[in-house]
Design goal:
- This protein is of the alpha+beta class.
- Helices cover 36% and strands 20% of the residues.
- It has a 6-stranded mixed β-sheet with strand order 1-2-6-3-7-17. The protein has a 4-stranded antiparallel β-sheet with strand order 11-13-9-14, covered by helices on one side.
- It is globular and about 80 Å long.
- Bound molecules: ligand BES and manganese (II) ion.
- Ligand BES binds next to helix 5.
Length: 470
């Protein structure tokens, strides 16, 4: 084991260089013009996996391809599988090579796909979300393979290209590869930690529904001087419609929206209070005048354990330089709602649709387009596997880990449970100031190095958990 840790220690510079090569590939899954580059990114990744000694292949889907990479299966694991007895432990590592759109480009200090190292961080789109994080796991397995250290388990990496657009084709792939992917747990580093001194095991994520609201007005943009005043303005109508969805005190004013929400237990609220982030720090980090959220809950609770209704984008009329006097033909809002355990995506979609239809004025035509959706995720933080993960975090970071509940979503973790029967261990390496989904995204190089160590130690710890005496 020491040789694995030494190998990691002595190869950091090369790893960072390789990560830069990976980050140079603009794998923006939401934008159709990047389709070829997603394929190229998958090919690069599979090539790199082979280079470090894994058996890798690129699996095409109806959307962007999936990369599967496995540790070489030893004779003993094949024999054990044949006997059907004493099955060798098998873990999956999940990640995504697709990234969020980099816009607005003018706010980047250096271009998003030209990685830049400054201090102890690497700046590029996809650095923390998620290339850097799953790359740490690849480097850990490289260390085992290149030092000839036997792994105590089989590993399969499943790195997809559609996480940032809802993982539409991965569930089908899991179903058609059920036996190949059967495993004891899925390890996912695609979350965060409260700060650099508090490594975290995330035990809950929010769910999500995405959709677009369009209000159609006149059949084309109109001269606002000639016709304005006698037709409804779709931008104004949409503003009024959206404004009706927000009640006082940061509540969502959609009937039925909170019906299935389970109240937070006193125990959980106490756990939240133990987290190190203060409201003042949060306000400073986000650059807001004042925090805002649902009355009766702390900011930590609001952003991880309460449902939301968010406008992600709002478009109507002329957006170019100078002025243009029109009544726009339409107005559109891109919306996502974050969901908490027990809220069903289909039902929330329904209550939102019903209410919008009910309050839409007769002067415009309402069009609703449904997007992706996923349930919230909740996993036991006290299972033997969770305990093993906490030990690996503690040893790698030399700090006491915290149990963390987060507000982001990773749609596929529910399918890992439903289709493969496997829990996900969410061991994030991201920091709150990493700027995920924002300009100047970065990944901390110490988190990268500690993440590699955590991964190397994790396989030892997981196979020592009750049920798997190595
Ligand atoms: N890595 C994030 C999810 C995340 C971030 C979880 C921070 C917990 C803390 C992931 O890549 C992501 O951004 N997912 C999307 C999913 C959506 C597009 C379906 C999200 O949460 O917006
Ligand atoms: Mn993301």
């Amino acid at each position: 084991m020491q040789s694995v840790l030494d190998y990691l220690k002595h190869n950091q510079d090369r790893f960072v260089g390789e990560l830069c090569a990976y980050l140079r590939l603009p794998s923006v899954s939401a934008q159709p013009q990047h389709k070829q580059e997603l394929r190229a990114c998958a090919d690069w990744l599979a090539g790199h996996c082979r280079h470090i000694g894994l058996d890798a292949r690129v699996c095409p889907t109806q959307g962007h391809p999936i990369v599967i990479a496995k540790t070489p299966r030893s004779n003993s694991s094949l024999a054990a599988a044949k006997r059907g007895s004493g099955r060798r432990p098998h873990f999956m590592v999940y990640g995504h090579y697709d990234v969020q759109p980099p816009e607005p480009l003018d706010l980047w200090q250096t271009p998003p796909f030209e990685p830049r190292i400054a201090g102890r961080a690497i700046f590029a789109r996809g650095s923390t979300d998620n290339k850097g994080q799953h790359f740490a796991h690849l480097k850990a397995v490289e260390a085992y393979l290149k030092t000839g250290t036997p792994l105590p388990c089989d590993l399969t990496f499943i790195i997809e290209g559609e996480e940032e657009v809802g993982s539409a084709h991965l569930a089908k792939f899991l179903k058609s590869h059920r036996s190949e992917l059967a495993c004891d747990a899925v390890v996912v580093s695609d979350t965060g930690m409260p700060d650099a001194d508090h490594p975290a095991l995330t035990y809950a994520l929010r769910g999500i529904i995405a959709f677009e609201i369009t209000l159609h007005g006149p059949s084309r943009d109109l001269h606002s001087g000639i016709f304005g005043g006698a037709v409804d303005n779709p931008a104004m109508a949409l503003s009024q419609l959206l404004a009706k969805l927000r009640a006082g005190h940061g509540r969502v004013a959609i009937p039925g929206f909170y019906d299935d929400v389970v109240p937070l237990s006193a125990y959980e609220r106490k756990q939240f209070k133990r987290l190190p982030t203060t409201d003042r720090e949060l306000q400073k980090l986000l650059g807001v005048k004042k925090l805002f959220g649902e009355h009766g809950f702390t900011p930590m609770e609001q952003r991880s354990a309460r449902p939301t209704f968010e406008i992600n984008g709002l478009t109507s009329g002329y957006q170019g330089a100078g002025s243009k006097t029109i009544v726009p033909a339409l107005a559109r809002a891109k919306i996502t709602c974050r969901l908490v355990p027990n809220q069903r995506p289909a039902r929330i979609r329904q209550v939102v649709c019903d209410y919008l239809k009910k309050i839409c004025p007769p002067t415009v035509r309402l069009e609703l387009e449904a997007g992706h959706g996923a349930e919230a995720y909740l996993v036991s933080p006290t299972s033997p596997q969770a305990q093993a993960a906490l030990r690996a975090l503690r040893e790698a970071f030399q700090r006491e880990p915290v149990l963390f509940r987060e507000g982001g979503s990773i749609p596929i973790v529910n399918d890992f449970k439903k289709i493969l029967g496997a829990d996900s261990l969410l061991l994030g390496l991201g920091l709150p100031d990493d700027n995920a989904h924002s300009p100047n995204e970065k990944f901390d190089l110490d988190c990268f190095a500690k993440g590699q160590r955590m991964s190397a130690l994790l396989w030892q710890q997981l196979t020592r958990a009750p049920g798997h005496h190595a």
